[in-house]
Design the sequence.
């Protein structure tokens, strides 16, 4: 199930982030800032009573920007990322979505393509020198 995170979830988010990302890990301060932004929503995904994933989205008028998303390493490749994204996309199906993903992150790219995200550009050096991002978008479903 999905639920909206609160500041009390910061340690859980920290743990999942550290276990999921090798590069470009967010600091606690970056996560804390999201809780103060009117357009930002932080979600937690729970599986069998454990918080195993988080996602930050920005709700901007009629668009959603998927800012960051992770499933804890030991729970990856079990279909939970797909379930998490299914729930969120359903919640915001009338919105046009945007996101950036590392060109070499094939798991995430495949997952987004499964949800009809289309590549709409390349952002050079987005994650650092020679670390390019694919910009993707998903049309609103009416
Ligand atoms: C990207 C991410 C969120 C996907 O979450 P996930 O829970 O692993 O996703 P799923 O399990 O739904 O699908 C991932 C893969 O597992 C496979 N899979 C799903 N259930 C499976 C199962 N029971 N047995 C074997 N494989 C399975 C899927 O087919 C998919 O395969 P693919 O990589 O070949 O396309 C996760 O890998 C992650 O947190 N990565 C690190 C952070 C990151 O890159 N975030 C995205 C930034 S944009």
Sequence:
């Amino acid at each position: 199930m999905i639920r909206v995170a609160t500041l009390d979830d910061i340690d859980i988010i920290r743990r999942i982030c550290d276990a999921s990302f090798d590069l470009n890990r967010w600091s606690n301060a970056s996560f804390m800032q999201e809780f103060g932004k009117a357009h930002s929503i932080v979600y937690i995904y729970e599986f069998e009573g454990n918080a195993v994933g988080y996602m930050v989205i920005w709700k901007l008028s009629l668009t959603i920007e998927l800012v960051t998303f992770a499933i804890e390493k030991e729970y990856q490749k079990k279909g939970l990322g797909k379930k998490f994204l299914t729930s969120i996309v359903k919640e915001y199906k009338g919105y046009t979505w945007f996101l950036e993903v590392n060109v070499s992150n094939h798991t995430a790219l495949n997952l987004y393509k499964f949800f009809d995200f289309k590549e709409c550009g390349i952002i050079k050096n987005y994650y650092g020198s020679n670390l390019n991002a694919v910009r993707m978008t998903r049309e609103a479903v009416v």
